[in-house]
Amino acid sequence: MIVLGIETSCDETSVALVEDNKVIANLVYSQILTHKKFGGVVPEIAAREHLKKLPALFNQLLSETQVDISQIDGIAVTKGPGLIGALLVGVSFAKGLALRYNKKLVGVNHIVGHVYANYLAYSELKPPYIVLMVSGGHTLILKVEREGNIRLIGRSVDDAVGEAFDKIARLLNLGYPGGPEIDRVAKLGNPKAFHFPRPKMYDADYDFSFSGLKTAVLYEIEKLKKSGISELPTNDLAASAQEAMIDVLLYKVTKAAKDNNVDKIVLAGGVAANSRLREKLNEFASEIEFYIPPLEFCSDNAAMIARAGMELLKKGIDDGLMLEPVPNLFEMNEIIVGS
Ligand code: ATP
Ligand code: MG
Ligand code: FE
């Protein structure tokens, strides 16, 4: 089965063609440079950029792959969660194609897409497994008990971890997006130089809280400035803040795996690129198997949407022209894919 995937939920415009577990092509246009000067994603600009880029990206996909539209079995588009204006662009474009070429159309939950991205990298992966989804918009622990059943067992009650990286980077006058910058300078710093709080680390639940950490870093910076030092120890502050976030993430996700008798953990989302996180996974490697898909499938992309949509299409689902975006889709605790 060949599926066309379309993703426009946030700041990546992406189209892809996927055949079973094989990616024929996955084109991603990141708007990072456009939003950089504002220090974060501006929703209105994101929507307009998708509108500008999507048709050309789609044409490029067909010409590069030499796949004719008649070979496509269905279209899968992200319906949410995400920015409403951005989602509308993708959904409207997908509806136009479905109508013009008489194709089946399914709306895909973006989070389910992140879960199914794993099968593009690890076709042998089988439930049960736990997913640690860490991005700019989400920090979630998901339990995939059996094929098609995804349960939300933990989430951040405030900032997403990628958002915390970005905000702390801004406090330290590092660039945007802050995650890669903190990752870079933290390598030059001492993670034990400052002891920042590890909120909710030992709570019984699997939830997270990251907004307090940003405040703790801010107070530390103010204290240091008042003490009259000439230059902020940026590397040490970055390394220590990063360490606090990674300690909590790893402690809680490995606890979730152990409590649920699961020995496989899959990473998803842009923060999965963090080198310290990847390094520290090794401490648990004797008891838990970690799956880290290549970054192109970890961060937002249309291949994962196509792969998740394939499950729906196989079940005979066709949302047709009634499909509407749902910006706050991830309010539910359990998703049965294709039910
Ligand atoms: P979502 O997927 O939830 O809609 P998003 O598009 O912001 O949100 P991604 O594109 O998956 O998410 O990831 C971007 C986030 O990942 C940013 O917050 C960025 O700072 C963070 N990030 C990227 N690389 C690293 C890194 N090496 N270390 C830590 N964080 C990183
Ligand atoms: Mg993004
Ligand atoms: Fe995402």
UniProtKB/TrEMBL annotation:
Residues spanning the membrane: none
EC number(s) per entry: 2.3.1.234
Enzyme class of the recorded protein, top EC level: transferase
Binding site for substrate: M133, V134, S135, G136, G137, D166, G179, D183, N274
GO BP term, example: tRNA threonylcarbamoyladenosine modification
Residues given in the record as Fe cation binding sites: H110, H114, D300
Cofactor note text: Binds 1 Fe(2+) ion per subunit.
InterPro entries (alphabetical): ATPase_NBD, Gcp-like_dom, KAE1/TsaD, TsaD
GO molecular function, one term: hydrolase activity
Keyword set, alphabetical order: Acyltransferase, Cytoplasm, Hydrolase, Iron, Metal-binding, Transferase, tRNA processing
Catalysed conversion reaction: L-threonylcarbamoyladenylate + adenosine(37) in tRNA = N(6)-L-threonylcarbamoyladenosine(37) in tRNA + AMP + H(+)
Annotated ranges, domain Gcp-like: 22-306
HAMAP family, per database record: TsaD
Name listed for the protein in its UniProt record: tRNA N6-adenosine threonylcarbamoyltransferase
Organism: Fervidobacterium pennivorans (strain DSM 9078 / Ven5)
Source organism phylogeny: Bacteria, Thermotogati, Thermotogota, Thermotogae, Thermotogales
